[in-house]
Amino acid sequence: MSNRNAPSHNASLRLNFMQQSPELVGKLQDFSISIGSSGHIDQGLSHLVDIRASQLNGCAFCLDMHVKEAKLHGERELRLYHVAIWRESPLFTPKERAALAWTEALTQIAPTGVSDELYAELREQFSEKELSTLTFRVMGINAWNRLNVAFRTTPGAHDKAFGLDKAELV
Question: Which of 38, 34, 37, 32 is closest to 50 using CA atoms?
Fold first, then answer.
């Protein structure tokens, strides 16, 4: 029996935003590359942020991609499994915990905004430059999440092109 209210997951019914707006995709890619190459945020921390935002946004494509990237860059599998339960897990440093809390606060903005307590916690862990870059990192992954959720990009669809098939997570 089918549920008429359940969303269809037939991505073939959605347009390919990369083909339709290549110049805008290029600008967003440039933005993301600039953040990643700034050197202000550790690559491992960037992966955790991308994974957590993608989990919160329900972005299957981005979650799949960033888990594979993290594994290729040496992240331990157990930590990847624990990103969803980072508050309860002993596997994350105070700096990583602060970044994950910031990611959640900026991904699911509360009506009251971001608390002073969270901001103070971030300031204990990050320099002003790092915090600014981290905030742009969260903005960037949220933009990608929204595109890929809107157009239901199939997880793994670009693995070969991005070199993610080497992660051997099939």
Answer: 32
CA dist., res. 45 & res. 79, Å (int): 12
Cβ atoms within 10 Å, residue 157? 15
- Write the pLDDT tens digit of every residue in 80-115: 999 999 999 999 999 999 999 999 999 999 999 999
Measure the CA–CA gap between 131 and 158, rounded to whole angstroms: 31
Q: Is the pTM of this model over 0.85?
A: yes
Q: In the numeric block, which tokens belong to residue 153? A: 């990009």
Distance from C-alpha of 140 to C-alpha of 41, rounded to nearest angstrom:
14
| Average confidence (pLDDT) over 30-54 | 95
Residue 8 has a pLDDT of 52
Place of tokens 């008429």: 4
The domains of the chain are located at 43-165
- At 42, the amino acid letter reads D
Q: Any idea which fold 43-165 has?
A: AhpD-like (1.20.1290)
